[in-house]
Write a structure and sequence with these properties.
The protein is mainly alpha-helical and 193 residues long. Helix content is 70%, strand content 0%. Helix 9 (147-158) packs across helix 10 (162-170). The longest helix is centred in the last third of the chain and has 26 residues, at 120-145.
Length: 193
């Protein structure tokens, strides 16, 4: 579309695009990294924070149905891979979940050990994978039984691709569209992007 932008608006858009695509993501200064890592260790690096993550399962049950959530939870615990979407499939790596840069400092190693020891990493991944797969199960059921409901909710977002997404869901395929849909669903309830 032809955008009708004033010069100051065009300049702002240009600055935003340059900051994101030219500068990209930059690693914060060492002092900032240390403060951030110690802060995470003191806040989410506790057993209580890991237990709080279990609330994600309740949110999934509420939004995607208890049956879908319980089935997805058991599949995740068992390590099922056939037809199961994992966090890695959506580029939701562990470090990305808590905004860790790819630093190799002493405090980042401490933080990693702390999050593993408290179970935070495992429970966070379990909650995300359960939600993602419960949402896809709900979408598959809707695609087969109530496609018009699905189109009404998601048609504007997917546009011409909504019919292909419905086919992929109803046939049980984990296409790129299905993965995009899984990402959209988890994005509605968690700050993953």
């Amino acid at each position: 579309r032809d955008l009708d932008l004033r010069d100051d608006e065009l300049s702002t858009v240009q600055d935003i695009l340059q900051a994101r695509f030219v500068g990209g993501r930059s690693v914060p200064a060492k002092t900032t990294q240390v403060i951030r890592n110690l802060g995470y260790m003191g806040t989410i690096g506790q057993l209580g924070s890991a237990i709080t993550q279990l609330g994600d399962l309740g949110v999934s049950g509420l939004m995607n149905g208890n049956r879908n959530t319980i089935r997805a939870l058991f599949n995740s615990v068992r390590g099922k891979t056939d037809g199961f979407i994992k966090t890695e499939d959506l580029a939701l790596a562990e470090e990305g979940l808590i905004e860790l840069a790819t630093e190799n400092s002493t405090t980042s190693k401490w933080l990693d050990r702390t999050l593993r020891a408290t179970g935070f990493k495992y429970i966070d991944r379990l909650g995300k994978e359960t939600f993602i797969n419960a949402a896809i199960a709900k979408g598959r059921t809707q695609a087969r039984r109530k496609p018009q409901e699905f189109i009404k909710k998601w048609g504007d977002y997917y546009g011409n691709d909504v019919d292909q997404l419905l086919r992929d869901l109803s046939q049980g395929r984990n296409s790129d569209l299905v993965k995009e849909h899984a990402f959209m669903e988890i994005s509605r309830v968690q700050p993953v992007s």
